[in-house]
Amino acid sequence: MRKLIIAVLLLGAAGGSYIYFINTNLRDSLMGFGPAKTPDECVTRFRKAIKDRKYDLAAKYVSDEYAEQLKKAAEAAKELGEALDNLTYRMEKAGVATNEAKLLAYLFDPFPTNAEINLDKTGEKEAILDLKITMPSVGTLKDSSQFNSNNLDGRMMRALYRNNNSLNLGVMATFNYNAKAKIIPQGEKEHWKIQYTVNSEMRTRVDFLIANYKEYVNIFKKLSQELKNDPGTKENLNGELSKLLSEVKRSS
Q: How many domains are contained in the chain?
């Protein structure tokens, strides 16, 4: 009798997992995130997931290694990205969105929602993705001294798309990002997926993001709330933002 009960419980658990899997896939499909049967569907759905900061859903349209990093970082990246979105909104509404502050928000964004993600070339067995992430148009910086490794922690920047050390805080030209990636059909049903390479540097940044994002979220939320309550107190927003980021770097 005891063995029968255990067997029934195991079958129930397995059945529950299967139902959850089916329901999750159905839910994703109803939200517009079903399997990609063409390169265009793959790119369109990946772009929408990034724009909505649904990194766990974006993972459905990329190769396994990159999917693992997106799913692993999904909660941290979403919370950090939304905190930056809110801060940017508050800065612009209060009229204190300096060039420096806009650039800092851009650099700390795990994957900017305005990324240009397009299908470049397509074929029967392979297509090419074109990814462009461009820094805000800011003109001349009044205080470029903020953009150095003493004040800012590069490990926290561009966590989900920079795959090398090309970012140089002393050279603004490196703030832009351009990349191309293959898109190929995978698995028995040949669903199309973006082949984005993952290396040890990205894994390190993702782990760092997960371990430290709360401190950065707290900074951006604090400034957003202060801007909401009394915008006039933030005339020196650059200095305060730089000071807080420098402090959290030293504590990491």
A: 1
CB atoms within 10 A of CB 232: 8
Which residues neighbour 79 within 8 Å (Cβ) at sequence distance 6 or greater? 213, 217
* Full residue range of the structural domain in which residue 105 is found: 31-251
**Does 2 reside within a domain?**
no
Both structure tokens of 153: 């922690």
Q: Is residue 9 part of a domain?
A: no
pTM of the model: 0.83
Query: Helix 200-229 crosses helix 237-251 at what angle (to 10 degrees)?
Result: 140
Q: How far apart are CA 180 and CA 217, in angstroms?
A: 31
Residue with tokens 């692993």: 72
Q: pLDDT digits over 193-251, tens only? A: 999 999 999 999 999 999 999 999 999 999 999 988 887 666 777 778 888 888 888 88
Contacts of residue 54, Cβ cutoff 8 Å, sequence gap at least 6: 33, 74, 78
**CA separation for the pair 71, 51 (Å, rounded):** 16
In a domain? residue 23:
no
The Cβ of residue 98 has, within 10 Å, a number of other Cβ atoms equal to 17
pLDDT digits (tens, 9 = 90+) for 119-129: 998 888 999 99
Residue 14: inside a domain: no
